[in-house]
Amino acid sequence: GTQFLLHSQENLYWLVFASKPITLSFDTITKHTITSSDGVYTGVLRFALVPPTLSHYPDASSLSLSSGVKQLIYHSNVYPTGGEVSWDFFNTHKNNNTSDTDDSSMRMNNVGTIKFKYNVMLMTTTSTSDTTATNNNYLAEKNNLLMLSLPHHALPSDMMLKTFDLEYNCIKGKMKPVVGAEWSYNETLTLVDFDDEEAKQALSLQPSNNNTQHFNPTIIREILKQVQEDLTRVLPTLDENVYGFGKQVARLAQLVHIARRMNEVSSSLSSSNDLGYVVDQGADILHSFLTAFLTNKERDKLVYDANLGGMITLDGLKNTEADFGNGR
């Protein structure tokens, strides 16, 4: 056959789809091995878990009533083989004061558009010698790709399956069934940082919305003193993994950025600043650690995976769980 329903000892049901007919044999002695009775199988096999939360279908025969199971069967012919992720940015205006229509109340919002484009193949194709008909069949079917989106994928509702009673969960929440070989959604990006235009206005004492912003030089000095103190704490070490080293180096870079911004504000106020050297002090510390890393003095080095391609860490090469699972 080409479609199977497997029931495991853990009381889980699996749907199995084959690209061409196959005979499966279950080892009744070991009770954990399923083999092909037809010799070596060279086709495609797809497996779909029926979530155990589907408690209102008590047995295998009643699974046919599930709208989710029907959707899995209907979309089983299309499967992904790879994909590309791209993004773009554009600006929109947001009125910060709904009662004020003056242009000064309009703020620019950065919006990112994230696009996913999947490469797909068909499990089976219509047997025909007509190349045009085959291509048209592929184009028609490729958009029937069914996958699950993560909770943070804010996809439009028209891409979601409306009739799907299966519930798949991940550590961030419920995943949603999406149909289509191309995804796209917009995400509003935050501007709350030292480089935000409104923050620059406030720090440079420029008037905004008819209110003069004030920045106390004493506060600048307190911030620089804290940065100077933080530059001596939790410094990176060359003995730890790349993941932790990268986070600590990023922390150093942020401290240097804060100090540099405070120096710029101090200059705009024409006030004396006896802690202006903190920027150079932090930059020197950051430079020393980055130089050590880039000259191969880090224990957990970055290496090239000659088998699969791409950069991995030495720790990740030995252990897939290293670097919090980010080593390869």
Topology, pairings included?
Elements: E1 3-7, E2 13-18, E3 24-26, E4 34-36, E5 45-50, H1 67-74, E6 78-95, E7 106-122, H2 131-142, E8 146-149, E9 168-170, E10 173-179, E11 182-189, H3 197-203, H4 217-230, H5 242-268, H6 278-294, E12 302-304, E13 311-313, H7 314-318
Antiparallel strand pairs: 1-2, 2-5, 3-4, 6-7, 7-11, 8-10, 9-10, 12-13
Helix pairs in contact: 4-5, 5-6
Strand order of the largest sheet: 1-2-5
Name the structural class.
alpha+beta
Give the integer mean of the pLDDT values. 81
Helix amount: 25-40%
Alpha-carbon Rg, integer: 29 Å
Largest sheet: 3 strands, antiparallel
**Number of H/I helices:** 7
How much of the sequence is in beta strands? 25-35%
Determine the N-to-C terminus distance: 38 Å
Sequence stretches where pLDDT stays below 50 over 5 or more residues = 96-105, 206-213
User: Given the C-alpha coordinates, what overall shape results?
Assistant: elongated
Order of helices and strands: EEEEEHEEHEEEEHHHHEEH
How many extended strands?
13
Provide an overview of this structure:
The protein is α+β, with helices and mostly antiparallel strands. The protein is 27% helix and 26% strand. The strands form five sheets. Strands 1-2-5 form a three-stranded antiparallel beta sheet, covered by helices on one side. It has a three-stranded antiparallel beta sheet with strand order 6-7-11, with helices on one face. Strands 8-10-9 form a three-stranded antiparallel beta sheet, with no helix packed on it. A hairpin with a 6-residue loop joins strand 12 (302-304) and strand 13 (311-313). 11% of the residues are buried.
